[in-house]
Amino acid sequence: MTNRKNILVMAYSRTEIREKLLDAFGQQCCFQFAETPDSVTIKQLQMADAIIGEPDEAQLANATHLQWLQLTWAGADRYTQMTGFPDRVTLTNASGAFGTIIAEYVIGAILSLYRGLPVYWENQQKHLWKKQDADETIYGKNALILGAGDLGRTIAGRLKAFGAYTVGIRKRPECPDAFDEIHPIRELDSLLPEADLLIGCLPGTPETAGLLGRARLQRMKADALLVNVGRGSLLHTADLAEVLAGGHLRGAILDVTEIEPLPESSPLWDLKNVLLTPHIAGPSFARNTGTQAWIWEICMDNLRRYLAGAPLSHVVNRQAGY
Question: What is d(CA 311, CA 306) in angstroms, rounded to the nearest whole number?
């Protein structure tokens, strides 16, 4: 068959995924599967009509025939902020594949701090049988969620199942079912003092960078809990560390930070009321095959659309940043 599209798969793909791609699209596509992103050759990049995965800027510059880039991530800021990203290339992401795994991380982390599990773990290492005053529940809490896209909606739904009152911040006025209220960003300052839980799910854009500064953190309840699973640029590390060290806020759960990896000199490492994880709340290709299946479902659906000349889904607005 002539005029087959050259599809370069840089993302991790198990044997069964490769077989599915070949069975479904082998007559229309010529696939190149990279064992690792670094193993991709310049010739493969030059031939690619479409790439599934995350090429770096140098690799992207060599992809001179590229028409479409399908990410296996939800966040696209690496590419929307890339000065050399080609205008001819349609950028799509995998938003919608990570809601479940990240929402469960959020719930688990909140409950862990509410019930003092990190302290009990430390006590266990010391063979110390000691109770602590840690019996908070999610039930009845006011949860303010920054971002009401797929991730924010999924987290809101899980929190509602525990009996929380969910308030969302988003640009559009429509109120998804998982939320009790939706407000525009301009009302953030008036909502912060009511929040028991503040959860950041926002993409990394110039508009969201530094949104939670020292002044806004101080507007929150003294016993509020902050969670950030969106982008670390949402808040300044120094501001948060200062507020926490001063005794304001119950604590913080951070899967993302302003600088990653978090520098060893950061004061956040030594704060007892901070739970830090290295950007692992929603991995694309770890052990969770459910998340992988959702990612590949999005990729394959878009590949069908691409080959049919139909509009792609999950298109990233590069001006908006998501």
Answer: 7
